[in-house]
């Protein structure tokens, strides 16, 4: 009978930064204990790495002890990321695991196979079962030389997992690759499928039919990028074939709880994940793009297509010329204060000579369509599409669309209606915080236009209760503001309320 390994806490951690609500973990563990699951992977074990990574990335001993008490009949598993772990780390990392952990898996890039074997021998010497999780399965047909290194490792490796990292393989690929691997080793085989092309179930069934001894799944498919085979789907399939009986009441409760997380993090396939799967492109980058909520699906697909075609960017634009054209720039952000102080902002713009308005994004452009002064639109991501929605007639005002320097991270998607009024920055010199931040593009535009005063409106900042994406954007904005404040020849002042630090603030009403 094929064994099932549930790796929800490990693979799902890519969305939660390996922190999970304690009550949810208890509910999950109780369900695992009652369901026909053989192995439960509880997370990573790791040396200290930069940045914050949560409880289930390091799995301290107390966590392993608590989970083993909740799941006494299950074989608990942890995974090592081979790129960070060496044989000399094994004693410190794995000695605390001995009372609780049955199997240690290793995430391995095929090019590091020799190094991984050294690590595996050190792990095996401590008495653990050892599994190789070898990535990028869809590319093995192109270069399978690393499989020759499996010869003679039957006493070192208990399971050799084929990992469909890109979610790219189809059932015939599964058959071909299993045949290839079996020609190199007698080690028991495993399969870990991703769901970019919604093939995780059929690929897993095919792997089982071709002789795989163990397969992975996660509750609701929670996992990196497009996610994995859903545990509840696999168990339901087995039940329908009279292979395993499952307890649906228990399973439905834990699935419902994880569906709440799914509503928040939105894992699962979408068009960019489908594209990355079809062409075996890394979904780590797609996950970051989708999660940041800065780019439209069209932008992400454009970037992926550029990768497929090995293009750094697909459009080169005229460069915005640097010249002493204006003394003052009002830079408008996307905050609610722009709408609230709309009348005052327009009066200020009309009252000053040598002034321009720079829109850091398209949210508020329609409120200034009747303002008869030069306006610039700092655009990136899906701001071009927003601009089209917010301004129907581009003949009404004197405006220019400004994009980040070439080549752009996402390539370039420019609607036909604004191509003739579009240009790009030659560079963003005043900050290294970001090249596609709307604030950075807006400030560099003002600098290039020769202003000596920048008035900021609509950079309200965020409340204390913000999500991870908002936190990242707030930090990015703060870093950009800190950098522009270092330029002594430009006076920077906020003229609407702001939560950002270090900014001199004055009331717009004192200026009109």
How would you portray this structure in words?
The structure is a single chain. The chain has 512 residues and is of the alpha/beta class. 36% of the residues lie in helices and 15% in strands. The strands form two sheets. An eight-stranded parallel barrel has the order 1-2-3-4-5-6-7-8. The protein has a seven-stranded parallel sheet with strand order 13-12-11-10-9-14-15. Helix 6 links the parallel strand 3 and strand 4. It is elongated. The mean pLDDT is 92.
Helix coverage percent of residues? Answer: 25-40%
The portion of residues forming beta strands comes to 15-25%
Q: Compute the CA-based radius of gyration.
A: 27 Å
The tally of strands reads 15
**What overall form do the CA principal axes indicate?**
elongated
User: Main beta sheet: strand number and arrangement?
Assistant: 8 strands, parallel, barrel
Poorly predicted runs of 5 or more residues: none
Structural class: alpha/beta
> How many H/I helical runs?
19
What would a concise description of this structure say?
The protein is 36% helix and 15% strand.
């Amino acid at each position: 009978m094929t064994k099932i390994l549930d790796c929800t806490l490990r693979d799902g951690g890519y969305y939660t930064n390996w922190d999970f609500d304690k009550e949810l973990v208890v509910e999950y563990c109780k369900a695992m204990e009652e369901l026909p699951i053989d192995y439960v992977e509880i997370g990573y074990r790791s040396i200290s790495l930069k940045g914050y990574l949560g409880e289930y990335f390091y799995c301290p001993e107390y966590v392993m002890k608590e989970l083993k008490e909740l799941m006494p009949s299950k074989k608990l598993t942890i995974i090592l990321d081979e790129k960070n772990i060496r044989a000399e780390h094994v004693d410190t990392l794995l000695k605390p695991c001995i009372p609780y952990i049955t199997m240690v898996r290793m995430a391995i890039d095929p090019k590091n196979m020799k190094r991984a074997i050294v690590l595996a021998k050190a792990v095996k010497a401590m008495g653990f079962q050892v599994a190789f999780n070898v990535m990028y399965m869809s590319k093995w047909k192109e270069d399978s030389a690393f499989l020759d290194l499996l010869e003679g490792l039957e006493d070192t490796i208990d399971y050799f997992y084929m990992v469909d990292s890109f979610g790219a393989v189809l059932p015939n690929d599964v058959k071909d690759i299993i045949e290839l691997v079996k020609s190199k080793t007698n080690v028991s085989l495993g399969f870990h499928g991703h769901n970019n092309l919604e093939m995780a179930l059929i690929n897993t069934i095919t792997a089982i039919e071709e002789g795989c001894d163990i397969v992975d799944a996660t509750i609701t498919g929670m996992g990196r990028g497009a996610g994995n085979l859903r545990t509840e789907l696999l168990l339901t399939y087995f039940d329908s074939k009279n292979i395993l009986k499952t307890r649906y009441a228990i399973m439905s409760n834990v699935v419902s709880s994880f569906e709440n997380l799914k509503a928040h993090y939105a894992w699962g396939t979408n068009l960019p994940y489908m594209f990355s799967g079809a062409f075996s492109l890394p979904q780590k980058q797609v996950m970051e793009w989708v999660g940041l909520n800065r780019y439209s699906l069209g932008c992400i697909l454009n970037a992926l297509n550029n990768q497929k075609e090995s293009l750094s960017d697909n459009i080169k634009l005229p460069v915005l010329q640097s010249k002493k054209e204006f003394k003052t720039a009002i830079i408008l952000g996307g905050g609610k204060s722009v709408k609230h102080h709309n009348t005052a902002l327009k009066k200020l713009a009309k009252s000053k000579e040598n002034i321009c308005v720079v829109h850091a994004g398209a949210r508020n452009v329609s409120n200034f369509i009747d303002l008869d002064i030069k306006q610039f639109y700092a655009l990136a991501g899906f701001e071009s599409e927003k601009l089209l929605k917010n301004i129907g007639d581009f003949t009404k005002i004197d405006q220019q669309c400004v994009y980040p320097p070439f080549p752009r991270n996402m390539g370039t998607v420019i609607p036909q209606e604004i191509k003739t009024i579009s240009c790009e920055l030659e560079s963003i010199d005043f900050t290294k915080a970001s090249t596609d931040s709307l604030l950075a593009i807006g400030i560099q535009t003002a600098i290039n236009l020769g202003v000596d005063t920048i008035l900021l409106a609509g950079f309200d900042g965020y409340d204390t209760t913000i999500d991870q994406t908002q936190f990242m954007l707030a930090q990015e904005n703060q870093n950009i503001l800190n950098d522009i404040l270092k330029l002594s020849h430009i006076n920077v002042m906020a003229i609407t309320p702001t939560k950002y630090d270090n900014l001199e603030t004055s009331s717009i009403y004192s200026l009109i």
